[in-house]
UniProtKB/TrEMBL annotation:
Coiled coil: none annotated. Belongs to the initiator RepB protein family. The lineage of its organism: Bacteria, Pseudomonadati, Pseudomonadota, Gammaproteobacteria, Pseudomonadales. This is Replication initiation protein. Residues 6-56 form the Initiator Rep protein WH1 domain. Pfam families: Rep3_N. One of its GO terms (biological process) is DNA replication initiation. One of its GO terms (molecular function) is DNA-directed DNA polymerase activity. InterPro entries: Initiator_Rep_WH1 (IPR000525), WH-like_DNA-bd_sf (IPR036388), WH_DNA-bd_sf (IPR036390).
Length: 85
């Protein structure tokens, strides 16, 4: 049974998400869903491929091996952009 993940996003995060690929956006949402806004921000936030696959199980269906590659490629494309800031 899947846990219910609720994500509340600020306007600046919504605006920034328009520049993300689908998998980058999914990865960011998977990370955000782990944050409890009532507690201090945890460092680091980890998203395992298994957790990513579980969140998007209905989306991916039988493409399980692709799910493990998707978060990796999303991280590889997000990191250079983050370092530029």
């Amino acid at each position: 049974m899947h846990k219910c993940h609720k994500v509340t996003k600020s306007n600046s995060l919504i605006a920034a998400s328009y520049r993300l690929t689908l998998n980058e956006h999914r990865l960011v949402l998977a990370a955000i869903s782990q944050i409890d806004p009532r507690k201090p921000l945890p460092r680091p936030i980890r998203v395992c491929a298994h957790d990513f696959a579980e969140l998007y199980d209905g989306v991916w269906g039988a493409m399980e091996q692709k799910v493990h590659l998707s978060p990796t490629s999303a991280v590889q494309s997000l990191l250079p952009r983050h370092r530029l800031r």
